[in-house]
């Protein structure tokens, strides 16, 4: 039986890569894609998601409009990193129209899809966790009906990429992240910022990956050009990345959801999110001493099978 995925995105370049990896895997059924504010404003996220589906010839997959702003925090976007439109500011006159969106909203769609497939759905969250938090607020029983939750977000060493101590997705809606880590007691797997940095790939692989000569590869090369220039600057490599390399953050969460053996080392620990610190708001708190007395422990990814990960990326652009 195919693995059933719901992917919650804020489609920037790495979300696009994650969607394409999921769609390329014959053992995966993407039930729907829910969109959230984040890398770029929600309207761009919706357009970008449809653009990715079009290049993959998968506009049959339902796309849902989600939350346009965080629960309490000020809006935060990552235009400098992904381009103002989220996909490298590359013109696309033939982009699909928003009339293709489902009428049902994202939060209700998540609840409905999980209820229709109890115990089977893997929810993969690569965006700020607003939609995911709202879903459990509306249906508190949702986590017990999920097979698993996979999150790209948070950090384990207070190493920030947006604030001094905060990773973008958790900073962009810290209250939502706090709710999700508190309420979702299903098996939960987290690909943190430091984890993605330490498992980055050589730039030579990126060159090979983009040189496959397909429509998908050409699309990816165009939309990732802006981001690549950004991340290859000396400042970024020195200050943000634990070792230079090609870091496709969101793909790790999707890849782990697809392949149960991809993660070769992980840590089981209770976590929460700091909401009040002047410098630490949005930081994921890792409770090694078990002082929080939380029964639910998440699985924090440590290492992956990089050769298998490369194969999944290569297949995505064939």
Indicate the multimeric state: single chain
The biggest beta sheet, please? Answer: 9 strands, mixed
**Whole-angstrom Rg:** 18 Å
Overall pLDDT level: 94
| Overall SS class | alpha/beta
CATH topology: Inosine-uridine Nucleoside N-ribohydrolase, Chain A
**Arrangement of strands in the largest sheet:** 3-2-1-4-5-6-9-7-8
What is the 3D shape?
globular
Distance separating the two termini: 24 Å
**What's the CATH C level?**
Alpha Beta
Outline:
The protein has 318 residues and is of the alpha/beta class.
What does this structure look like?
It is built from 14 helices and 9 strands. With 318 residues, it is of the alpha/beta class. The protein has one domain: Inosine-uridine Nucleoside N-ribohydrolase, Chain A. It has a 9-stranded mixed sheet with strand order 3-2-1-4-5-6-9-7-8, sandwiched between helices. α2 (42-55) links the parallel β2 (28-35) and β3 (63-65). The chain is globular, with a radius of gyration of 18 Å. The relative contact order is 0.16.
């Amino acid at each position: 039986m195919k693995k059933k995925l719901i992917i919650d995105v804020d489609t920037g370049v790495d979300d696009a890569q994650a969607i394409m990896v999921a769609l390329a895997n014959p053992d995966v059924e993407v039930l729907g894609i829910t969109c959230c504010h984040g890398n770029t404003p929600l309207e761009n996220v919706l357009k970008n998601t449809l653009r990715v589906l079009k290049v993959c010839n998968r506009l049959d997959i339902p796309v849902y409009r989600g939350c346009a702003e965080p629960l309490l925090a000020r809006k935060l976007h990552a235009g400098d990193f992904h381009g103002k439109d989220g996909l490298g500011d590359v013109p696309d006159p033939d982009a699909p129209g928003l009339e293709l969106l489902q009428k049902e909203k994202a939060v209700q769609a998540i609840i409905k899809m999980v209820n229709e497939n109890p115990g089977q759905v893997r929810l993969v969250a690569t965006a700020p966790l607003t939609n995911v938090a709202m879903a459990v607020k509306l249906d508190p029983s949702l986590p017990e009906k999920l097979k698993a939750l996979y999150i790209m977000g948070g950090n384990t060493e207070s190493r920030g990429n947006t604030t001094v101590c905060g990773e973008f997705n958790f900073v962009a809606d810290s209250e939502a992240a706090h709710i999700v880590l508190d309420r979702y007691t299903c098996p939960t797997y987290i690909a943190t910022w430091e984890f993605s940095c330490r498992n980055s790939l050589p730039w030579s692989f990126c060159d090979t990956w983009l040189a496959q000569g397909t429509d998908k590869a050409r699309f990816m090369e165009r939309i990732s050009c802006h981001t690549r220039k950004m991340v290859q600057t000396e400042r970024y490599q020195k200050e943000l990345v634990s070792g230079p390399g090609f870091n496709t953050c969101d793909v790790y969460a999707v890849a782990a959801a697809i392949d149960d053996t991809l993660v070769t080392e992980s840590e089981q620990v209770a976590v929460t999110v700091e909401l009040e610190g002047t410098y630490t708001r949005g930081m994921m708190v890792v409770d090694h001493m078990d002082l929080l007395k939380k029964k639910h422990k998440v699985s924090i990814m440590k290492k992956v099978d990089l050769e298998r990960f490369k194969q999944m990326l290569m297949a995505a652009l064939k």
